[in-house]
Design goal:
CATH class of the largest domain: Alpha Beta
Largest sheet: 6 strands, mixed
Pfam family, one: ABC_tran
Number of helices: 10
Shape: globular
CATH topology of the largest domain: Rossmann fold
Helix content: 25-40%
Strand content: 25-35%
Family: Belongs to the ABC transporter superfamily.
Organism: Mangrovihabitans endophyticus
GO biological process, one term: response to antibiotic
Membrane topology: Peripheral membrane protein
CATH superfamily of the largest domain: P-loop containing nucleotide triphosphate hydrolases
Order of helices and strands: EEEHEHEHHHEHEHEEHEEEHEH
């Protein structure tokens, strides 16, 4: 049976991240407001939520670059306040914005970064070759960074985060701004990392990314955890099997809200469409037509994590 307390993630026998009552304040504002988290070795763990939910502030504390304001935090079994440098040496970090050096080549961005960890030049060159092969950039090793595509830069940033052979990699919005093809290639590389036993901790506001990559995740809103579980558990707990998206040829979709009463378990009125949460989408569409409501379009799809977030917070993930 799952833990009924929404703010608690079950403790693992080996938690690489262990937080209890974790708080991060900026003045009177609590960006992170008392969360409990455990990340297990070898899993992909996600923080899902919109901008401003507290995901990046949490990641900065986990990455030992921002001290907690309150609570308990242990990373790799150590206290960041006392062992920050030792922890950082065993972490890989892929920031939200690529901060590669445009004056260096693709290969040099890896070998120069390796020197920060005391890695010899010979080992750095060897690892750079292996990592460029892993992220499929070997043919661009001698190229400058500036002309690379956004997807290539993202893959290079991920490769750089692996130079020190980290036990855990922190990825803040790893595919923001990438086209679908580039996103899928990044997902494939991250999935391969997980298969190799690397623990991944990522933030995202893309529900499909969380479903693709995460073994477990927490949904954050307003600095707090409002739900936790596997993607499938969350969908089953907070949504229905199918969703019907209806669009009507009027500016105010809400005018049709009362006319759809009783169709499905619940409905959500958004500015551009109405969502019906139902067990059988085709039957729901048939009922809409029996009521002669005449939507301009009707789409039946499976429930997603975005529906979970909408149910929990009353907002879509990209609000």
């Amino acid at each position: 049976m799952s833990d009924p307390r929404p703010n608690v993630v079950r403790v693992s026998d080996e938690s690489l991240v262990h937080a209890r009552g974790l708080v991060k304040r900026f003045g009177d504002f609590a960006a992170v407001d008392g969360i409990d988290v455990d990340v297990r070795r070898g899993e992909a763990f996600g923080f899902l939520g919109p901008n401003g939910a507290g995901k990046s502030s949490t990641m900065r504390m986990v990455g030992c670059v921002s001290p907690p304001s309150a609570g308990v935090l242990r990373i790799l079994g150590m206290d960041p306040a006392r062992s920050g440098s030792r922890i950082r040496a065993r972490l890989g970090v892929c920031p939200q914005v690529d901060n590669l050096d445009p004056e260096l080549t693709v290969r040099e961005n890896l070998t120069a970064y390796a020197r920060f960890f005391g890695i010899s030049r010979r080992v750095a060159r060897q690892r750079a070759a292996e990592l460029l092969d892993f992220v499929q950039l070997s043919d661009r090793a001698s190229s400058r960074v500036e002309p690379l595509s956004g997807g290539m830069k993202r893959r290079l940033t991920i490769a750089r985060s692996l130079v020190n052979e980290p036990e855990m990699v922190l990825l803040d919005e790893p595919t923001t701004g990438l086209d679908p093809q580039a996103r899928h290639l990044v997902w494939e590389r991250l999935f391969r990392l997980k298969q190799q036993g690397v623990t991944l901790v990522l933030t995202t506001h893309y529900m499909d990314e969380a479903e693709q990559l995460c073994d477990r995740l927490v949904v954050m809103d307003g600095g707090r955890i409002v739900a936790q579980g596997t993607p499938r558990e969350l969908i089953e707990r907070y949504s229905t099997r199918e969703v019907v998206e209806l669009r009507f040829p009027v500016p105010d979709q809400g005018a049709y809200g009362e006319k759809l009463a009783g169709v499905g378990e619940r409905l959500e009125v958004l500015p551009d469409r109405i969502l019906l949460y139902v067990a059988d989408g085709d039957e729901a569409v048939a009922e809409v037509h029996r009521r002669s409501l005449g939507p301009s379009s009707a789409l039946v799809r499976r429930s997603s994590l975005e529906d979970v977030f909408l149910h929990l917070t009353g907002r879509t993930l990209v609000d």
